[in-house]
Every structure is written in C-alpha cells, then in structure tokens.
Amino acid sequence: MPIIMCSKPSPIIFAILFLALLCNGASTVAGCDEGERNALVDFKRGLLDHTGRLSSWTGSDCCNWQGVACSNRTGHVVRLDLRNPHPFSDNKWSMGGELRPSLLGLKKLRHLDLSMNYFGGRPIPEFIGSIRNLRYLNLSQAGLGGLVPRQIGNLSILQYLDLHNDRFYIYSDSVPRLSIDDPLWISGLSSLRHLDMGGVKFRDTSSLVEYLNMLPHIVEVRLSLCEIQSIPLSLPHVNFTRLSTLDLSGNRIDSPTIPSWLFNVSSLVHLDLSYNSFRGSIPAEIGKLSSLEFLRLSNNSLQGVIPKEVGNICKLHTLGLSYMNISRSLPELGDVFSGCIKTSLENLDLYRTGLTSYLPDWLGELTSLKILYLDDNSLVGSLPESLGRLTSLQKLLLSYNKLNGTVPAEILGGLVELVYLDLSNNLLEGIISEAHLANLTKLSDLDLSSNRLALEFSPNWVPPLRLQWLNVSSCRLGKKFPSWIRNQANISWLFMANAGIVDQMPNWFWVSFVQVEMLDISKNAIYGRLPTNFFSFVRLESLILRSNYFYGSLPTNFSPNVRLLDLADNFFSGTIDPAIGESMPNLRILLLSGNKLYGDVPSSLCQLQNVAVIDLARNHFSGELPNCWKHDLTFLDLSSNNLSGGIPDTIGSLSSLKALHLSNNILSGEIPSSLQGCTGLAILDLSQNKFTGKVPTWIGESCPSLRILRLQSNMFAGRIPQNLSRLFGLHIVDLSHNNLSSTIPKSFGRFAAMKVKRANPEQVLQGSTSWYVESMEVVMKGKVLEYGDYNGILSLVTSLDLSGNNLYGTIPRELGSLRGLMSLNLSGNHLNGEIPKEVGSMQSLVSLDLSRNELSGAIPSTMAYLTFLSYLDLSSNNLSGRIPPGSQLQTFNESTYTGNPGLCGFPVKQICENDDNGAGTRNNNTSEEDGAGSQVWLSYLGTALGGFVVGFWVFWGTLILKSNWKDAYLRYIDRQYDRFYVIVAVTFNRYKNSYV
C-alpha cells in the first residue's frame, strides 16, 4: 500500500476554510426558528395590547418583530423586550393579560423585559424559573402580585434580576403586593450581579443578609421598602468583595447601631440606610469606606456628632443626614468639612437636624457643592457673603429657619448655576430688585414666601428667568398686579397669596398661563370676572382664589384634571352648574363658601366620585338637600343658608364623614337614625335650626370618634342622654337654647377629654390641609369666639354649654372633676340648691355662667382657687352671704352678682352685718389697721403691676410668634385689667371710708 505523504497546510488555507464555514453558516440562517415563531405568536394571544405595540408581529421572520432580537449566528430568539415605552401615561400604553408558558419554546432566550406594564395582580409564573439561559430578567413595575416563585432560584447563570415594585402604594388593594416567604432561593443565583427587589415584602428576613453574602459576584443590592425588620450586627465572614451599591432605605430596621460589618465592605460606593430606625451615633469606622461616593443616613434615630473621619472620604459627593439630631452648632462642623471632602462634596443634606447658630464662612469653601439643604433648623443671623462663592450651586434651601437681615444682591448674583432657591419662612426683610435675579438665567424654582420682603422691579423689566415654580406669598408685590411675570410662560405652580395686590385681574394672565397646574392668588383685593370656560386649562389641578373680589357667574367647563377648587369669600352669584359632577370627575375639594350663590344644592354633586370636601356655607341656597349622597365624602358644610326639610337618609351612608355642618338653616324634623352609619364623625353641628324630638342616645354609642357636638338653638326636648360621657374625645358640647327638661347627668363628670388640660395641640380633623381649615364658634366669656384648627388650637378648647333649657335639680358635684374644662354655662335653667364647693377644683375655668337659675346659699370659698377665671356671672339667683373676701371673686363687676339680694360685701353695695357697721368703728381702728392696710395695698398694687407687665409681654411676644393664640392672651389681659381696676377700687374705697 503506497504511503501518501501530505505536506503541512499553510495558515492561509486555514483562514480560507474558516471564512467559508462562517459564510456557509450565515447563509443558512433565513429568519427565526419556526417553533420559536409559533411560541411568540401563542404568547401574544395571551396579551392585551390596547395600543397595538405588537402590530408588527406578522410574517415569518420573527427576528424583525418589535421587541424581538435574534442571534446573528444561530437565528434563535435571544432577547424579548416588551418594556412599556411610556411608563407614566396612566397605563395607556401598558400591556396586560396572561403570561403564557409558551415562552419556554424560546430555548436560547437570554434577556426578558416585561417591565412598566400592568398585568392586574397576576402572579409571576413559575415557568420563568425553567428558562435556564436567562441572564437578564426585568419584571419591575409590571403590576404583578403575590408570592415570588422560588423556582427563580434555579436560574444559576442569571446576572440581572429586577422585581422592583413600589407601585403597591398606588395600586392599594387592587393588586396584591409582591412578597417572598423564604429568601433561601436567592442564594442559588450564583452568577447574580444586580438585584433590585424594592417594594417586595419579605416575610422572613432573619437570614436574608447571610443568603446575600453567599453570592460571590454580587455588585448591586437594592432592597428599599421591603419591610425588613432587622439585619445582623456582625457577620463571621464578609464575602461582599465586589459589592458597590447597598440600598436598604425605607424599611423597619430597628438596630441599636449601624452594623460593624458594613465598614469592612471596602468596595462600597453607594450606601443608603435612610428611613429606618438605626440608633446611636455615626461610628468613626465609617471613614474606612474610602471608595464611598454616596452616603445617606437620613430619617433614622441617630444623634450626636458627625465624626471628623467623614471628612476624609475623598470621593464622597453626596451626604444625606436629614432628621439626625446633631448636637453641635453649624459653625462647629467646620472640622468635619475641612478634609478632602471639601473639594468632592456635591450634595449636602442637613434638613431638620437641630442645627443652631449662624451660617459659617466655611460653607463657601465647599467649591464643588451643587445641592445644599439646611432648611427647617434653628439658624439665625444674616446670609454670609461666602455663599456667593458657591458658583456651582444648583439648589439652595434655607427655609423654615430664623434668618434675618437683607438678601444681598452680591450673593445671589454669583450663583449663576442656581436652579432652585428656597428662602421661605424666615425673618428676611428689605427689597428684592432686578440686580438680585438678573444673572439667574437657569432659575426654575423660586420661593421667597413668608418673609418681610418686598419685590420691586421696573414696570418694563423682562426677567431672564425661566420659572416653573414661583411662591411669593406674604411678600409685598405692590398694589398693581405684577406685570413682570407675564413672560414667565413656563410657570406651572404660582403662589401670590396675601401679597397686598389691589387691582383688576389682567386679561393677559388667562392667555399667558393656560399651562398652569396650581394657582393661588388668595387673600388679596383682586377683582374682575373669570373666564367662563376653563376647559383650555388642561393641566390645571388647583385653583385657589379665596378672599378676593371676583364677581359674576361661576366658571363652567373646567378641565377634568381639577382636584382643588377654592373660590370662597368672593362675590360670585348665580347657581352651580348642574353638570359639575361630569365636568370635574377628579375633584377632591370644592370650596365655594361666603359667596352669593343661590338655588338648589345640585344633585350632580353626588356624582363627584372622588370628592372629599364640599363647603357651600354662607350662601343663599334654598330648598331641600338632595338625597343621593355616596362615595368617600369626609367633610360637608352647608351651614348658613336657607335650606329646609330634613336630613337625607343617604348622608348616613357616608361612613368616612368626619365633619357635618348644617347649622343656621331652617331644617326640621328629627335627627334620622341613619346617621348612625357615620361612624367616623368627629364634628356634628346642627345648631340654629328647627330640629325636634329627643337628642338621640345612639350618638353616645355609634359615634365613638365624636369630638364636637353642637345642637344649640333648636327645639329638642326630653332628657339629656347620659351616655354622651362615654365619648372619650368629646371636648365641646353645646346643647343650649332647647327645651330639654331633666337633671344634669352625674355621668357628665366623666368626660375624659375635659378632665385633663391638654398640653399639645393636634388637629381635630386629622389630615386637614393648608387650603381647608376647620373652624368652630364657641360661646365663651359672654361672647361668640371662633377657633381655627390650623395649628390644632381648636383641640385645646373645652366647653360645656347647657344654658337656656328647662333643667332642674342641683348642679352635680361630679362636674368638679372636669379640671380641664375652660367654659361652663348652665345659665337660664331652673337649677336649685347650692353651688357645690367642688367647682373650685375646676382649675382651667376661664368662663363660668350660672346666672338666671334658682341657686341659693353662699358662694363657696373654694371658688377663690379659680385663678384663670376671667368671666363670671352669678346674677339672678337666690345667693346670700358674704362674697369671699381677698380673692379673685372681688375683681368682678357688680353686675356679676346683681339679682342676689342676700349677697353682701365688695363689689356689691350691700354691707355685711359683721362689718362693724360703718365709719365710726372703722375710724376707731384706723391707727391699728393703717399699717396693715398699707401692706395690703402694696401687695395688691404689686400683684396688679406684675400682672400687667407679665400680661403685656406675654401678649406681644406670643402674638408675634403665634397669632392663633390671640384670643387666649386677650382674655388674659382682660383678666389682669379687671383685677387691677377692682384692686384699686377696693383700696380707694377702704381709705375713703377710713376718713369719713
């Protein structure tokens, strides 16, 4: 057999053969595999594609279909990307439907993205764990719910897993939240690099960190809003050699300190532990994280100093420490920011950290700073010139401090990169001129509200600004409507409330600002008519024109996006558009009180499915109330109109109703039992009507949240329900001026909210907004006083008014336990017997009226202990004996005691029998009593002057800080004045008698 000798082939031949093979292989690929095409077609059949995003899925070559990518070498489908391209379009572009297992036919699928769609709460299918070639899986924000299948843990070569799902806050109960029962399966993802499960609820997190520590290639872990309750303080071995991002924000982690093992993860670049419950101080070991660029520890229970080692993290560009209790003044932090952080830091967040003192010059040395949050602290002093050196600054927030002085134009003029400026709620004063804003060409958000600033620009000045947000409320803008805003056509949010404008609303405004989303020009003196058609304002959500002089008919055809409409306290007339329920389907708050509107209350209001607040008070509406109420209405005010008939039964279906105001109408009939359905009622005001029947006993049983009950000036008869005292929070009760005939229940001494004087104010209606504030009239000190609920002042008012009825019997001594009661009015009844001495225990009483009864006996001396009492009326009774001397009871006018012929002693003219009958005896003892009299006179005078001085400064100091306390302090001043007057009168009278 011959031997054939072959020579060694040349490299050129190998290259030719290799290229031939490649070309031959490429030429064999003619579209996608038929089986994979059929799998995609079947998968499409299960989807709901409202906008035709998959309209290209026709023909034989699936590799050219939208969202499908194939391998150039094999032709197999390797990528399926059906992510919603318009994720914030209210689900218009979202796909839904069923996720069919036909996807298993894509044997080589490596990339699957179904994110930002809406699958209606369907669970993540288990078959996904069988697509073994997956490297990338993104199911975030897809409207999927229920348990995450543990089969996903079989994807051993998966590198990217994103199940982020924080939309459960939006979906509420309509979509079950994604959750994980046992995270053990995560440890099987041995190739994983990126993990994002934000918003997924972990039911068991006891070993979560240990499982994550088993992933050798993990680089990024994002687990925000996962309800993780604890993490270990230490680990036996830290395996996070590549971890660069760790986000555990917004959980419930309760830890005595920041875990020490974190400081051994030297690769960390991004660390977010915000919105948890870490305690203790920031450990100095944090300085070991030399690669750290982002550190956020905000909203924890951390306190103490910021360690200076933080300043040595040379790459740190973001430092968030808001809500931390820093026990140092701002200037003292200079040593922290003197290291290499000084040149790297771009974002510094010290919001609400308890900082005190002034703004230091070292702030100007943070040359790279782009964002500076120092708002809501206790900073004082003026703005330092060093702020002007922060030429890279984009956001500056100094609001809610006590900064004073002027705003130098030199500072703002240097901040040429500024986009967001907030100096609101300080004590700044002076003028803001063109020079302040001329260089701020990038400024989009400007808030100067609630200062003492005046904005003065020349009439023809055209600002170079491109504002989107402008708040100059409570600044002085001049009487003319500011023309300089005319060219700011990009403004979406405009606040000019309480700006001193006295002018006609210019027509150009409604043309230039059709894109506005929120407009507040309330509390000015702006007048004119509104456009009849607001439909062109397609982005308008909030329109607040309260307390102006607008007139004419109400606008119609509002944009369907309107959520807040406040036209209260103007001069609008006419009727409400019957189609209001159709034109504003998203309306939440409707405030039309204090106008001249008339006609029926339209039944179309019942069609407002999202409405929470309706206030039509102080108008001229007449007729009966519509009987169609439904939905989640929380506040209804129809008071001070001319409404007649009874209370519709359907109001009782409003289980979310918190306040019902129907006072000052001509409503009649009995209180319907259907109101028992209003179980969340906190305020019930039916006063000044013609209601009859008995005060229902079910009020004390079916309204456990009731805090204010006003049934004044009706025709209620019968007994007072004893079980009202079961209402734990009831602190204002007014049943006056009815025909009630019974004794005062002894159980009224058990009103829990009247027993203790409240120290901390809280809103009576939780969740009230700055655009709607509850208020209530209370008869106190013989006057009608109105208390607002904005700062919780209304919650501090306690009053019990049973006057003007036919009550009989004695005053229960049990009322003496109401030590937090401020006002007690039992006048105009048929009460008899003595005033119980226990009244002297009611130490918070400011006003006490027992007049026009049949009380007898002496005034108890214990009433001298009522040191806060500034109004007292005991007139028209049968009281007798001496008015307790040397006490506050002698500081009231004689009219307090008139109609009691048996009373004697100052201030009444009747002299008591044991007063030695006259001047002769008084003269005999002059020498003995003059010294004592002088001491008493000096004591009274000292008390009077001290009271005057204290009252004077308490009034002015508190009035500056809290205007809502004005009434309380005026009452204090009245009391001091009355006391001073009577003391002088008593002393003068004694010395006069001694020389007669």
TrEMBL record:
GO MF, one term, reads: kinase activity
Give the Disease resistance R13L4/SHOC-2-like LRR domain ranges: 308-488
Coiled-coil ranges (or none): none
Q: Which residues form the Leucine-rich repeat-containing N-terminal plant-type domain?
A: 35-71
> What is the protein name given in its UniProt record?
Leucine-rich repeat receptor-like protein kinase
Q: Which UniProt keywords apply?
A: Cell membrane, Glycoprotein, Kinase, Leucine-rich repeat, Membrane, Receptor, Repeat, Signal, Transferase, Transmembrane, Transmembrane helix
Q: Where is the signal peptide?
A: 1-25
